[in-house]
Write a structure and sequence with these properties.
By secondary structure, this protein is an all-beta fold. Among the domains are: about 525-640, Methylamine Dehydrogenase, Chain H, CATH 2.130.10; about 680-765, Immunoglobulin-like. It has two helices and 66 strands. The strands form 18 sheets. It has a four-stranded antiparallel sheet, with no helix packed on it. Strands 2-3-4-5 form a four-stranded antiparallel sheet, with no helix packed on it. The longest helix has 18 residues, at about 1-20. The protein is elongated.
Length: about 775
């Protein structure tokens, strides 16, 4: 069995490597420690659906996930079989792995997941001998661990909370009471199961000659009579008999320990234990967000900490719906939703930089009294990397400094409006999204389901609202960006009975506070270059490529705005990229037509990374006509085919992939050295600036987010700022708004990491 498992994992990893050259990393959350099992001097800890091992002897920590051989993600249940020296891992989707820690061999048992059962939910697992007894929503399933196969499935026509085996009988606890089946009988017939009491137990484990159970107390059940004895009152949260030598039961106030002679000891103390195990005199406590911690028995009989938490740097949760990257290649992540689907996600913000995660404070309710959840965007102040804002799909805008809560803005203290202004709960419907800074350092956001959709928090802290008639009252805007001309583009996600999915453009002519020169347009009918019309009912993604083209991801596939200047004109058409068939027919197909696009990112080589709903991740060539790679859960370690967000770190080449099952990184070929610039790259025009010219000076050829300073020959800084979309504009005025005098001015450009720079010269003639 072990040799087979080791061979299987080698073959799986070899196939994944062949299908997806490059290094994959699963950035799973490891903050909420829920269960642990000591095995031969190593402790395996289950946290947030992932597992890691800790060896106290050498303090080695190892992470196990799909990139290292596990078959899936989101582990729901974990148990140990001493006879086979095997961990049984049950995933949330009811997939099962047998993991042999001594050689890291892994055997996948997918038969139950792939069965025809309408409901495959597994509620609990109990190991007795070499059998695992699975309590399911339809009955009891028995798996033989030694053979790696299912031996029997018993339909009880009711959900089973927990089950176990003792004295030749299977015990199944349900909301309708206990059912007992003698294995000498035909248990495939539900009538051969006997009702045995009213105990609605949450956990049952066989230990020694008896069964121990938890529910409204701690109980011992005699298999010979079926009688239950109350051992302790209270409501235990865990029951552990994995090592076969000690049974431990407990909650936050009391711990009950049964030794192999079935002597009961009770320790009364306040604790945060979600789970407790014992190995070699050390108690290992899974303490939720306090991590995995070691304890030892103190002189007074209580448990005393024997060391700090064993922690892994990771995201606070496996939420990553919205992602963007700063000019310094810091990856910002918000993990929420606009909540139009009725789901709620705890407030989750973090960033990834230099191979480490930084999690923002999330106990925000203590400051606001409002629920803190469904965060739809995060933006970093371009002048201060410790200063951040975050939008919420429910409660407005949050401000953070150094990752700590600083302020909150909603309909009570800002122009942000509520979707239900007359309600006493109006503050719970301030739906914001699309958070983005413009090139001048103003913070833009979208205010959903209200008359005035666009809100701007100006650099000085004041607010401006911008009315866009075409989309007034629209409910689900979520992406916003600026093009090279400074126009704002934003998408409306879905079509409803009274609203359309589509893309909008706002040209405010650089005058945020003056609406008189504003122009806007919203398109929900997508007419391509061949005259074919689409009305996509979902628009999920928005990106700008290195040519300045706007990419729009829809349920019908990707569309490209190759002429942004013409978007508001009649006769405008979207482009659907045509991919030649190369079959001698001169025919072509539209790129990814009919594929539901959910996220788009562009790398330094202008290649497009396109995420989808249900179809994995595509890498498209610079010229858009070649699919370089198509990654799925079948041919790569990708943990889900549902991609929510994407970002590319051009300094390392790593592609950050946000999925509905957590964050991943793919380190492929580094396409170009970013932020590299020379004097020859700078294009400054007009140059010289003559007396009859009254417009802006444009500096092109800049890396995104490059620092730009314009100085006198004496070194005095006249103005400064950051590039946007490859360029920087100067109004030929100083910091006080005065026209500069005649002379020679230097243009100094440096990248975010200060490794590269360039210098140019500009002449002004007055």
């Amino acid at each position: 069995m072990r040799k087979l498992s080791a061979l299987l994992i080698i073959l799986v990893l070899a196939a994944a490597t062949a299908a997806a050259a490059g290094r994959w990393t699963y950035y799973g959350a490891f903050h909420n420690a829920l269960q642990n099992i000591p095995v031969n001097g190593t402790v395996f800890s289950l946290c947030d659906g992932s597992i890691f091992s800790y060896s106290p002897g050498d303090t080695e920590v190892r992470v196990y996930d799909k990139t290292t051989g596990l078959s899936d993600v989101d582990i729901k249940l974990m148990a140990y079989c001493p006879e086979q020296q095997c961990l049984v891992l049950v995933y949330d989707n009811s997939n099962i792995d047998l993991f042999f820690p001594d050689n890291s061999g892994i055997v996948n048992i997918p038969q139950y997941m792939n069965s025809s059962l309408a409901d495959k939910t597994i509620n609990d697992i109990s190991v007795v001998g070499s059998n695992a007894y699975l309590a399911t929503n339809t009955g009891v399933t028995v798996m033989n661990i030694e053979r790696g196969e299912f031996s029997n499935t018993y339909q009880l026509e009711t959900a089973v909370n927990t089950c176990t085996f003792a004295g030749g009988k299977i015990y199944a606890s349900t909301a309708k009471g206990m059912f007992v089946g003698n294995t000498d009988d035909n248990l495939l017939d539900p009538s051969n199961w006997t009702a045995a009491g009213t105990g609605n137990y949450k956990k049952m484990r066989t230990f020694g000659a008896n069964i121990y159970a938890t529910g409204a107390g701690f109980f011992k059940i005699d298999p010979a009579t079926g009688e239950a004895s109350l051992l302790a009152t209270g409501t235990p949260v865990f029951l552990n008999a994995d090592n076969g030598n000690t049974l431990i039961c407990g909650n936050g106030t009391a711990i009950h320990i049964v030794d192999n002679s079935e002597n009961l000891t009770t320790i009364t103390q306040k604790n945060s234990f979600k789970y407790l195990s014992l190995a070699s005199g050390t108690y290992w406590a899974s303490c939720g967000y306090a991590g995995l911690r070691p304890y030892r028995a103190g002189q007074a009989g209580n448990l005393e900490e024997a060391g700090g938490a064993i922690a892994i740097n990771s995201p606070i949760r496996n939420y990553c719906a919205f992602m963007n990257i700063t000019p310094s290649n810091r990856v910002l992540v918000a993990g929420g939703t606009l909540n139009y689907n009725g789901l709620n996600y705890e407030g989750t913000l973090y960033y990834y930089e230099n191979n480490r995660f930084f999690n923002f404070e999330d106990s925000i309710t203590q400051y606001t009294t409002y629920p803190y959840r469904n965060l739809t965007g995060i933006a970093e102040d371009p002048d201060d990397p410790t200063h951040h804002f975050a939008t919420s799909g429910e409660t407005g805008l949050y401000e953070f400094r150094n990752g700590r809560y600083a302020a909150h803005y909603d309909n009570s203290n800002s122009p942000l409006a509520s979707a239900v202004p007359k309600s006493s709960q109006s503050h719970m419907y301030v739906r914001t999204s699309g958070l983005t800074y413009d090139a001048e350092g103003n913070l833009w956001m979208l205010n959903n389901e209200v008359d005035t959709v666009v809100r701007v928090r100006l650099k000085d802290g004041s607010w401006q609202s911008i009315y866009v008639d075409e989309v007034s009252g629209y409910p689900t805007f979520d992406h916003l960006l600026f093009d090279r001309a400074g126009r704002a583009w934003f998408t409306h996600r879905r079509t409803t009975s009274s609203h359309h999915a589509g893309v909008a453009c706002l040209d405010y002519n650089g005058t945020i506070t003056d609406p008189s020169d504003d122009r806007s347009y919203f398109r929900y009918t997508f007419v391509n270059q061949d005259g074919t019309s689409y009305n996509p009912n979902t628009v999920n993604a928005l990106a700008i490529d290195n040519n300045g083209y706007i990419w729009v991801g829809t349920i019908e596939g990707p569309f490209v705005i190759t002429n942004p200047d013409n978007f508001m004109n009649s006769g405008f058409t979207f482009t659907q990229v045509k991919v030649p068939r190369n079959d001698g027919t001169n025919n072509a197909d539209y790129l990814l037509t009919g594929v539901p696009v959910s996220a788009i990112a562009v790398d330094a080589a202008n290649r497009k990374w396109i995420g989808t709903t249900g179809n994995g991740l595509y890498l498209i060539s610079e010229d858009n006509i070649e699919t370089i790679s198509h990654f799925t859960t079948e041919n790569s370690p990708l943990v889900s085919d549902n991609i929510l967000s994407l970002a590319v770190n051009n300094s390392t080449g790593e592609v950050m992939i946000g999925t509905d099952r957590g964050l991943m990184g793919f380190m492929g070929e580094k396409t170009a050295e970013p932020n590299k610039i020379s004097d020859d790259d700078l294009k400054i025009y007009p140059n010289p600036v003559r007396p009859d010219y009254y417009g802006d000076v444009t500096i092109e050829g800049l890396p995104y987010g490059a620092e730009v300073k314009i100085t006198t020959t004496g070194g005095q800084v006249v103005t400064s700022g950051k590039s946007s979309n490859g360029e920087f504009k100067w109004d030929v005025r100083d910091a006080y708004g005065n026209d500069v005098g005649s002379g020679v001015y230097f243009v100094l450009v440096s990248t975010g990491n200060s490794k590269h720079g360039a210098r140019g010269r500009l002449v002004v003639i007055r």
